Amino acid sequence: MAHRSPVVFKVDAVNEKEIPAGVGTGRPAAGRATNGVDAIDASPGGALLGVAPGQPGGPGEPAAGLSGIGRALAILGDRWVLLILQRAFLLHVRTFAGWRDQLGISESVLASRLKELVRYGIFEQKAYRDGRTRLEYRLTEAGLKLWSFLVAVHSWERDWADRPDLLTLMHDRCRHDARPYLACGACRKPMTARDTHTVRGPLATFSRVGLPRQHRRTTARGDVRTDYVGYCPLSMEILGDRWSTSVLAGAFLGVRRFVDFQSELGIAPSVLTDRLKRFVELGVLQADAGRHYRLTDRGLAYFEVFAFLVHWGQRELPGPPGSDLDITHKPCGSPLSPVLLCRHCHEVLERREVRFDLSAYPHLA
């Protein structure tokens, strides 16, 4: 077989090419701190990721009234959105027909997800002519910044979901398998959930449901296709559903008891029971006889993904003033600024210096 160069994982919002289709009471009072995943103080609570009623959020604004994290979960906590973004980055798909044929998604569902991605400023529409005027969807600057979040998902999945078949992420600078790990952008030291200290802003005294149900649950067990460029079912069950992602976020913020998850998230008991039970089955949470839930090593490792989600959401989709989480890296005292380092050369991975090696799939090269 003739040698083929790997397909480069470098996205340019202008010059990218499309690959042809077919190829509570468990939260601290306002201003109180939490240390990593330690237990947090008790005080009257409400929905974890919303803000108090009457706070700013103009008509037509995405997820008006939610915190930045709540807004990020409202768009990214969905299986189809994740797969659309993954194909946009890796295979440079940018047309309606391209995603429809790649993913086998219904046209109505695809149209609604693309509309949301445009509304949240992740995609922008551009007209082009192909016999007649058509629209394509290109990643905006805010959308391009999601690459580290998606790479973190891939990294966790490769390390913790028993997926040795996943694509290798190559670092062009050192020409080795990157095997990324999370570090603090200020001191460049490795960072875990236990290395962080969190303070909720004064408007993070929540009193309404933070995540409106806009779609049906899209992570029914067994319906997720596992392939070389897709996310495996384990990641999809964690990220591909807004309530599941919210439950995990609550666990990272120190929520432990069933009643506290229910109070913080405003979630129905039956839905919460299902999500907690499934997380225990997946080895992400462990439960004791008193219905206290704690993150396992596998769950704690997902902080890498959570850190990028929080960082992106609070900067690109900011909520009302005072609704943020103030997360600090305890060893150096710097605000959360997550970066991915190459495990071989320990340099920061930049979007234009990494690529997924698709040389084993010549029809995509």
Descriptive notes:
The chain is of the alpha+beta class and 365 residues long. The chain has a domain of 219 residues: Arc Repressor Mutant, subunit A (Orthogonal Bundle). It contains twelve helices and 13 strands. A four-stranded antiparallel β-sheet has the order 1-7-10-11, with no helix packed on it. The protein has a three-stranded antiparallel β-sheet with strand order 5-4-13, with no helix packed on it. Strands 2-3 form a two-stranded antiparallel sheet. It is globular. The N terminus is likely disordered. InterPro entries: HTH_HxlR, WH-like_DNA-bd_sf, WH_DNA-bd_sf.
Can you tag this structure with a few keywords?
single chain; 365 residues; alpha+beta; Arc Repressor Mutant, subunit A; 4-stranded antiparallel sheet; 3-stranded antiparallel sheet; 14% strand; disordered N terminus; WH-like_DNA-bd_sf
Count of DSSP H/I helices:
12
Would you report the number of β strands? Answer: 13
Quick one: overall form? globular
Radius of gyration: 20 Å
Broad structural category: alpha+beta
String of helices and strands: EHHHHEEHHEEEEHHHHEEHHEEEE
CATH class of the domain at 146-364, named Mainly Alpha
| Approximate strand percentage | 5-15%
Helix content: 25-40%
InterPro entries: HTH_HxlR, WH-like_DNA-bd_sf, WH_DNA-bd_sf
GO molecular function: DNA binding
Protein name: Transcriptional regulator
Keywords: DNA-binding, Transcription, Transcription regulation
